[in-house]
Amino acid sequence: MSELPSENAHIRTDADTGAEADTDPLRAYAALYPEVVAAGSVRGALQAAADRAGLELAVELTSSPGWRKVAAKAESETEADGRSATVVTPGGGERVFLVDCWLGWIHMARGRALDLADVAAVFQAWVRGSGVRELTARWPFLETWDLAEAHERGETEAVAARWRMMQRGPLPHRDTELLDLIRAAHAQPRLRALSPGKSMCWFTLSRRAAHPDVGDFPRTRSLGGGRYELMFPDRSVRVVEGTEAAVAVILANLPQDLTP
After folding, report:
1. Taking phi first (over 0 means left), then psi (-120 to 50 degrees means alpha), and beta for anything else, what does residue 45 get?
2. pTM score of the predicted model
3. 207 with 127, same domain?
4. Confidence of residue 189 (pLDDT cuts 50, 70, 90)
């Protein structure tokens, strides 16, 4: 993707004269995205495409000012639903609109569309509650994955999918000792009921699979040579030898009120 224009990319100062000259950040998009340039932004062009199709869709700017010309989003009317979709127009090379569908912080589907009419239709279907399989079946340029489908089936399925994903890797720096720890933790029913995750080089556990994490548990990383460091919620640390010892410390420090 080309570098995105900054907030003030439409203004430059001529070094010789000090005069300001128009340098519209969309000028480079004219050949491949004429409708975007004509509308002044992706948001304007996408809203126009939705209106032409008779879709009841409110297209918005994204939160980052630097993306205001080349990106847009739509969100479900019900805030608790947490559904949103975004589109970004990369510059140069080829005409393509990068589409992403979200459920809160969970990435549910993505794709590369050629037409803004298709993007508008995807946006409306998603924010109105379509499932990811329905979405990908109707618009083959979209793809989804195991974790996204599991989240639609419920928390228990999402947790199980996260464990499967964690045990497959990839892990930071191909950390086989951390992978051994994850597999040993999964073998414990009390830990298997929690949602696993990675934060940099740390293995984490949470009471829920969706963001935000609710984790008042130790986090663990491998130090090499069979040694593991555990960091507790109060930021204190402990180093132990072997995966069994590390798992035993995690189990011993689970909260008394543990309820996933």
Report:
1. alpha
2. 0.72
3. no
4. very high
Task: For residue 201, give every residue at least 6 positions away whose Cβ sits within 8 Å of its Cβ, in sequence order, or none.
Answer: 172, 173, 175, 178, 221, 222
Question: How many other CB atoms sit within 10 Å of the CB of residue 78?
Answer: 10
Please indicate, yes or no, whether residues 243 and 212 belong to a single structural domain of this protein.
yes
Q: Is 29 left (phi over 0), alpha (psi -120 to 50) or beta?
A: alpha
Residue 53 falls inside a structural domain? yes
Contact between 141 and 154 (Cβ < 8 Å)? no
Domain of residue 185 covers 154-252
Helix then strand count (H, E) for the chain reads 9, 12
Q: Which two tokens stand for residue 70?
A: 């080349």
Q: Do residues 32 and 81 share a domain? A: yes
Do 50 and 136 lie in one domain? The reply is yes
What is the identity of the amino acid at 254? L
